[in-house]
Structure formats: structure tokens, C-alpha cells
Design brief:
Elements (H helix, E strand, L loop, with lengths): L1 H19 L7 H30 L4 H34 L3 H6 L4 H35 L4 H31 L2 H25 L14 H7 L9 H14 L7 H33 L10 H12 L4 H16 L1 H4 L1 H17 L10 H27 L11 H5 L5 H31 L3 H28 L15 H34 L5 H35 L2
Helix pairs in contact: 1-5, 2-3, 2-5, 3-5, 3-6, 3-7, 3-9, 5-6, 5-10, 6-9, 6-10, 7-14, 9-10, 11-12, 12-17, 14-17, 15-17, 15-18, 15-19, 17-18, 17-20, 18-19, 18-20, 19-20
Length: 565
């Protein structure tokens, strides 16, 4: 136990220092992020409460819906925890920089493994548990259980998280024993991405919104069969759902004691099995993980042709930076594999518009079609800003330590930033226009609305991208170990807020003029000179805000980069 305490002590001291000894200029960041987190959690709580209250208003099947929803939530959290622990365990157990020093220390392999497993459990579980809390509190608010529910909620979720963490770590240890750690990282990443895409598409194509509309089914038996959740009595999430639901609806002191005991005994069993397996194969897997990565040559010609085609219109200095970014992107599995997730997002985004029941709406069909098309610009803008948060915002930080080579080269910082901007311009412009054109085609909007939304989306792409490049230059991170960590900091949060504000302003400024023009077209009445002046002023304001969104962040980011020595 003393060895385990010594191995965990640096982590505890680091956490204490981050909380109590942060520099004064950084004290505002936790407050801002904590406040935004509370707002988000509050929104999830209110939304969950409204869903459960609606379920309760449905006679006969309301509680069945609520119970199945609880089961599906726990199953989703359990799967997320398993995947998160697999990925985190690979870094903590095999690829961390301090592992060579730890393995050289006079401690047992089991103690080192347990200390790393505890770190993996904490790193992978806290966020999922925090974001699940509003949902569970919504159940408590609606069903008003006794105090035993809150005790049960804590220990059952803890046991469920231990099981998920143990399974994720066990899978990682076995895979690394069979393959080198760096190859295992690629396998796990690709497998996780494919599984998430499959689950995402499967869940969406089931059209779960039909479950709150029994009229969509021909018989009660068909509707009840559709209510069956993808659950199994052999899953730990099923045991946790049974225990929590019993606490919500029953006041018996013992409750579902068998399922609770089964959950904790499984958690203890998983911990013991992990320690046994680690004692046998963990050090061998770590030794194998120190092998050098093999150079990849497959696809070199295609990649070379792509870089030459993309960089040909630009000068040799910007072309060199662009070519490097393209090669790094396609050689890093953690980046190009996310294109698969993006493709699934586009498919589901377009599919949602193909199944909209517009003919059942209370408004006129043509008015409803064009209203949804106009509001869809905002939704597409938020999707584009989320994509930019992952790819465009970290563009400056991808240089890492080679940034200092760029500073000593003839390439100026201004050309460097605009080169990054132009590299992402065409792909994101194409993505935005595809989303808008396809959804407008499915909605069968008027030619006026098609042209307006297409032009406005192109304008928004220019501003969203400039905000991403400029914000990334204002808050660069050249010391990251994983590029995905860059967008999760304060600068990434600030960028999302600024892009949301920019998109909201564009929609608000265009709402009035678009309504006037559309109604004039429907009624066949000409606009008055005052109306035309209002329309012109609104679109001029949109152009002015877009130009400000393009040039102001780039100027601020350039000034901040010039200050870095």
C-alpha cells in the first residue's frame, strides 16, 4: 500500500496545485468554464424534466417509456465508459513519457499497474458521470423518491464505472500483449470510430421519435414491441437500471438487493482479474510498446499528387506549409479517421430532413418549408463551427516546436495565417454548401430561398473560419501531446461562443428582410421604399459583420503571435 500511495501522490499534489496555486491571470478561466458548465447542466436538467413530465402524462405507457429511457441512458453511459477507458488506458499504461522512470523504480508491477488504472478510471469516468447527473436528478425531481435513492445512485454508478473501467483496461492489456502498443492504438481508434458510426446510424434510422406517437403504429402489440430497449439481463447496466428504478417507484428498504449485490461483486471480480492479468503480461506489453514505429509507404503517390494539386496556385513558401499540413493530417489516424464521423454526421443530418412530417404541420406547407430552410442556416452554421473547432482552431498549434523554424524562415506570419485559412477554405465551403443545397432540395423551397441560404452560408463559412484561425492564434498551444487536447481549452470554448454569437447575429439581421421579401412574393404585393431601405440596411449590416468577423480575429491573432518569443 505504501508503494501505491507514493505512485498516486504526484497526481494528487498536481491536482492540489492546479486548484489552489494557479496564477492570478488564470483564475478567471475556471470560473468562466465552470459557469458555462453549470448553464449546460441546468439546460440538460430542464430538458430531461420536461421529457419525463411528458411521459407521465401519457396514460398506461408513461412509466414504461421512462423506465426504458433510464435503461438506455445507463447502457449508453456504460458503452461510452468502456470506449473511453480503452483509449485512455493505452496512453496511461503504455505510452506516457514517465513510464520508463516508474518501471525503473523499486516498486512491484502490480502496484504500478493499479496506480495507472486508478488514474485511467478518474480520467475516463468523471466527465461521463458529471454529464449524467442532470438526467438522474431529473428522475428524482419528477418521481420524488426517498433519500435512499441518492445513496443508491452514488454507489451503483460507482460500481458501474468500475466495471466499465476494468473491462476497458483488460481489453487494452490483452490487445497490447498481442500487438505493439502503437499499432494497437491505430486498431482501437479505427474500431471505436466505426462502432460509434454504426451505433449512431442504427439509432437514427430506427426513428425513435415514433415512440412518442403511438398513432404511427398499426396495433398496440406492434407499439409495445417497438418499446423494447436494446437491453439484456446479462449487462451490468441492466442491473443498475433495475436497482435505480426500484428506488424511484418503491419505498421498500431492501429493494433490489440481488441486482445491487451482483453489480458490486462483478466490479470486485473485474478488479481482481485485471490485477492477475497485469502481473502476467503487463510488463511484456510495455516492453513491446517501446519498439519504434515503422515507416509507412502505402499511398505515398496519391498523397504526393494531392499535395501538388492543392498547393499549385500558391507561392513556394505557403505551399511548403500546406503540403506539410496535408501529409501530417493523412498520416495521423487520430485526424483522418474523424472524416468517417463527419460523413456519418452529414448522412444523418440530411436524412432528418427527408423524414420531416411537414404535411402534418399547423402552418401552410410553403411557409413552413421556407421557414425551416431559413432556420436551417443557423443549424448548419453550428455544425460548421463544431467541425472548425476540431480542425481549423488547432491549425496554428499543429506546428508545435516547428513554429520556431517558421519564425526564423522568410515566411511572414501574415502569409502563414492566411495560408492556413486558404487550406481549409474549399473543404469547409463545400461541406456547408452540400448541407444547405441537399436539405433545401428535400424541403422543396422556392428559388429565392435556395439562392439566399446558399449565399449566406458561404458568407458564414468565411467568418467562422477566420474566427477559428484567429482564436487559435490568440491561444496557441505548442506543448500538447495530442492535437485533440488543443480545442478543449479556454480558447476553444471562447471560439465556440464567438462563432455562436456571429451565427445568431446573421440569422437575426436577415430574419426581418427575408420575411418581408417572402410575404411580398406570396401575396404578389410590391415592397414600399421604406421596406426596401430596411432590407438593404439589414443586408449591408450582414456584410459588415461578416467582414469584421473575417479580418478582426486574424489581426488579433497575428498581433498575439508576434508577441511570442
Amino acid at each position: 500500500m505504501s508503494d501505491l500511495y507514493l505512485l498516486l501522490r504526484p497526481r494528487m499534489l498536481g491536482l492540489r496545485n492546479r486548484i489552489f496555486r494557479s496564477r492570478k491571470r488564470e483564475k478567471k478561466r475556471p470560473l468562466i468554464m465552470g459557469g458555462l458548465g453549470l448553464v449546460f447542466l441546468g439546460g440538460m436538467f430542464v430538458l430531461s424534466c420536461r421529457v419525463l413530465v411528458y411521459f407521465q402524462s401519457v396514460e398506461m405507457i408513461g412509466d414504461i417509456l421512462a423506465k426504458h429511457l433510464l435503461s438506455m441512458v445507463l447502457l449508453t453511459f456504460f458503452c461510452l465508459l468502456v470506449f473511453s477507458n480503452i483509449i485512455t488506458a493505452l496512453s496511461n499504461l503504455y505510452l506516457s513519457k514517465d513510464l520508463e522512470f516508474c518501471h525503473a523504480a523499486p516498486v512491484s508491477v502490480e502496484s504500478l499497474f493499479v496506480s495507472r488504472a486508478v488514474g485511467t478510471f478518474v480520467d475516463s469516468s468523471w466527465m461521463v458521470m458529471v454529464f449524467g447527473l442532470p438526467v438522474f436528478m431529473a428522475y428524482a425531481w419528477v418521481y420524488r423518491p426517498g433519500p435512499l435513492f441518492y445513496v443508491t445512485l452514488i454507489h451503483i454508478n460507482l460500481a458501474l464505472a468500475i466495471i466499465a473501467s476494468g473491462l476497458g483496461i483488460l481489453i487494452t492489456v490483452i490487445l497490447v500483449h498481442l500487438f505493439p502498443a502503437r499499432r494497437t492504438k491505430d486498431i482501437i481508434l479505427l474500431f471505436s470510430v466505426l462502432m460509434i458510426i454504426a451505433l449512431y446510424l442504427f439509432f437514427r434510422f430506427l426513428r425513435p421519435e415514433r415512440l412518442v406517437n403511438p398513432e404511427a403504429f398499426f396495433s398496440i402489440a406492434q407499439y409495445m414491441s417497438a418499446l423494447k430497449a436494446p437491453d439484456s439481463p446479462y449487462l451490468p447496466s441492466h442491473w443498475a437500471a433495475q436497482v435505480l428504478w426500484d428506488r424511484l417507484t418503491s419505498s421498500e428498504p431492501m429493494g433490489r438487493w440481488f441486482e445491487g449485490l451482483l453489480t458490486w461483486s462483478t466490479a470486485a471480480m473485474v478488479v481482481v482479474i485485471n490485477i492477475w492479468v497485469a502481473g502476467a503480461v503487463y510488463f511484456k506489453g510495455f516492453s513491446k510498446s517501446q519498439e519504434a514505429r515503422k515507416r509507412r509507404t502505402a499511398g505515398g503517390r496519391c498523397l504526393h499528387l494531392l499535395t501538388r494539386t492543392v498547393t499549385r496556385p500558391f507561392g513556394p513558401d505557403i505551399s511548403a506549409v500546406m503540403a506539410k499540413d496535408i501529409r501530417v493530417f493523412f498520416r495521423d489516424n487520430t485526424q483522418w479517421s474523424q472524416l468517417l464521423l463527419l460523413g456519418a454526421l452529414v448522412v444523418v443530418y440530411v436524412y432528418n430532413f427527408s423524414v420531416l412530417p411537414l404535411d402534418k404541420g399547423p402552418m401552410r406547407l410553403d411557409f413552413l418549408q421556407n421557414e425551416i430552410a431559413f432556420l436551417n442556416m443557423g443549424l448548419a452554421g453550428f455544425v460548421l463551427s463544431a467541425v472548425c473547432t476540431r480542425f481549423v482552431y488547432p491549425a496554428v498549434s499543429t506546428e508545435v516546436r516547428s513554429y520556431w523554424i517558421l519564425r526564423s524562415s522568410p515566411l511572414g506570419l501574415k502569409r502563414f495565417m492566411w495560408g492556413k485559412y486558404l487550406l481549409f477554405l474549399l473543404p469547409l465551403l463545400l461541406l456547408g454548401e452540400v448541407l444547405i443545397v441537399l436539405t433545401n432540395y428535400l424541403l422543396e423551397v422556392t428559388p429565392f430561398m435556395m439562392g439566399l441560404t446558399t449565399a449566406t452560408t458561404g458568407l458564414m463559412v468565411l467568418g467562422i473560419m477566420a474566427l477559428g484561425i484567429g482564436s487559435g492564434a490568440m491561444y496557441p498551444n505548442f506543448e500538447h501531446e495530442n492535437i485533440a487536447q488543443v480545442s478543449t481549452g479556454f480558447g476553444g470554448l471562447l471560439y465556440m461562443m464567438l462563432s455562436a454569437l456571429y451565427i445568431g447575429l446573421i440569422i437575426i439581421l436577415e430574419a426581418g428582410p427575408v420575411y418581408l421579401l417572402f410575404m411580398a412574393q406570396v401575396r404578389g404585393d410590391p415592397l414600399s421604399p421604406l421596406d426596401w431601405a430596411f432590407v438593404a440596411a439589414s443586408f449591408v449590416a450582414v456584410m459588415g459583420i461578416s467582414l469584421l468577423a473575417v479580418f478582426k480575429p486574424m489581426k488579433k491573432g497575428l498581433a498575439q503571435l508576434e508577441k511570442i518569443e
